[in-house]
Design a protein that fits this description.
Layout (H helix, E strand, L loop, with lengths): L4 H14 L12 H12 L11 E2 L6 E12 L5 E10 L5 E2 L1 H12 L2 E2 L1 H16 L4 E9 H4 L9 E6 L2 H4 L1 H11 L10
Parallel strand pairs: 2-5
Antiparallel strand pairs: 1-4, 2-3, 3-6, 6-7
Helix pairs in contact: 1-2, 3-4
Amino acid sequence: MPIDKKKVEQAVRMILEAIGEDPEREGLRETPRRVADMFEELFEGYEYSDEYTWFTETSDLVVVAGIRFYSLCEHHLLPFFGVVHVAYLPRGKVIGLSKIVRIVRKYTRRLQIQERMTKQIADEVMRATSSQDVMVVSEAVHLCMAMRGVKTPAPTVVAAVRGAFAVDKSLKEEVYKIIEPHRFKGFPL
C-alpha cells in the first residue's frame, strides 16, 4: 500500500502547529512535503516483492557482511542504524547476493524493533535459499536511547541463529571471525 503523502503533510503541519511553530514561515513552508517525500523513501520496505534469482553453483558457506541499514523505531519514530551480517549454508543453490541486501532493506525500511527485524531477515533468507542453516547478526545504535531517555548510545547486537549455526559452535565462531572486520563501530556522542 503506497504512503498517503497528503495525510503525512497534514499531520506534519499539525505537529508544527502543536509545538508552537508557524508552518507558513519561510524555513518550514516546504517541510510537510519534504517529510512526506522522506517517509515514502524510508518506508519503501512495505512495497518489496519476493522475487529471487537462484544459481545452481554451491558453496560451503555464504556470508554477506556489513550491510549498512537505517530504520525507524516504532516506539518513538526515531532512527536506529548500523549493519546487518547474513550467513547461510547453501543447499543445492545460492541466491543472488544483491537479493540478500534487498531482503535486509525490505525489513529495515519499515517501522521496526531490532529484534523483530533480525528475525524477519533470518526467516526470509531461509525461505529464499531453502536452507534451514541461517545466521543473521544486526548491530545498531538507537537514537531513542542516545538522544532521549537514558541518553546512552550503547550499540545493541541481536542474533538470529538457525539450524547448523545453532548447534555447531565452531561454525558460529567462523561466521563471527569472518564478520569481525565489518562490525559496526558506532559513533561517539
